[in-house]
Amino acid sequence: MDGSPGVRSDPATWVDTHGAALLAYAMPRVRDQQTAEDLVQDTFVAALQAANFRGDAQERTWLVAILRNKICDHFRKLARERTHQGGDERDPVEDSWYKPHMGSDGWAVSPKAWVVNDEALLANREFWQIFHECLRGLPSRQAAAFVLRMMEDVDAEKVCQDLDISATNLWVMLHRARGRLRSCLEERWFTP
Amino acid sequence: MKLFSSCKEAAKAIAEALEHDLPLYRRFALAFHMLICSACRRYRKQVIGLNRLVRRHVREPSGPVMNLDAVTRQRLVERLRQANTTPVGGTPNAAGDAPRP
Q1: What count of other Cβ atoms lies within 10 Å of the Cβ of residue B53?
Q2: Which of the residues A30, A31, A45 would you substitute to probe the B interface, choosing the one with the greatest number of B C-beta atoms within 10 Å?
Q3: Which terminal residue of chain B, N or C, has fewer Cβ atoms less than 10 Å from its own Cβ?
């Protein structure tokens, strides 16, 4: 905080040593390059101002831990910006997946035939590009729930607190988020 | 959930089962629905597959980490320099206010 010797690292060295790795960590988790850069930036600043900066081999791990907090904060903030999309009221998009069929709700359009091939998709940049476009299309609270719970692996209880929702709301929101992502990817990637 | 549940109910039960164990009778109803409904079997396989894929995506960075391109690098360095020279205890918003090229 006060310019103690530990914080004298040259920013350029920091960016060269850790910048690419931190950005690579942030990119799959947030929606765009700009946000990822901002979060990496905030991480460096927080690290520079931290009194316990050591500059040893643990530096990367420590920076990633800070970055992870920044990412979680980012999604919590995003989720609070608009409060009207909870998991409790009806969701017209969810409703549109089904249509009454012989007295019960069947699929309006049956899921098409495709399977998730991990090995082929993990390394496919175009696929993740489309995945992120689909993620961007989600209502912000659904996206926040999905990223915190499914990507950051935050405890369900903690996510409920952060988003100020009940446990039931959480899985309903995750259900809607997954369903939206599934249809978006089906339409844009698996069976275009 | 009835024994003869709808696809809508089945899809919700699939989602709920991913978060916590379902009570026995609902587990049974879901299993029964899966037995008779190929569309829901497909749906379940796909959402569970996507869950697994996303988890692997964030945990197993694929390929070597790319170097920063020169523009991004410069932008980060500049912003960090500014943040670093802003006296702490003055304006606390040093990080966010650095101008972008």
Answers
A1: 18
A2: A45
A3: C
Between chains, do A37 and B63 touch, taking CB under 8 Å as contact? Answer: no
Preferred mutation among B5, B32, B62 to probe A, highest tally of A CBs within 10 A = B62
Q: How far is CA B27 from CA A30, A66, A105, B13, B14, in A?
A: 35, 40, 19, 8, 9
From chain A, the residues in CB contact with B50 under 8 A are 116, 178, 181-182, 185
The pTM assigned to this predicted structure is: 0.81
Q: Which residue of B has its CA nearest to A28?
A: B58
| Structure-token pair, residue A90 | 């009806």
Residue A27 DSSP label? T
Residue type, A27: M
Chain A segment 123-152 residues within 8 A of B by beta carbon are: 123, 128, 131, 150-152
- Greater confidence (B85 vs A129) lies with A129
Taking CA atoms, what residue in B is nearest to A12?
B77
**Which two structure tokens, joined as six digits, stand for B3?**
């024994």
C-beta separation of A70 from A43 below 8 A: yes
**What letter represents residue B101's amino acid?**
P
The count of other CB atoms within 10 Å of the CB of residue B62 is: 15
What whole-number percentage of chain B has pLDDT above 90?
Answer: 49
- Distance (Å, whole) CA A130 – CA B73: 25
Phi, psi dihedrals of residue B86, rounded to the nearest 5°: -70, 125
Reported as a single tens digit per residue, the pLDDT across A49-103 is 775 556 566 888 889 999 999 999 998 888 777 655 555 578 888 889 998 877 7
The verdict on A48 touching B (C-beta cutoff 8 Å) is yes
Q: What distance separates the 2 farthest-apart alpha carbons in chain B?
A: 68
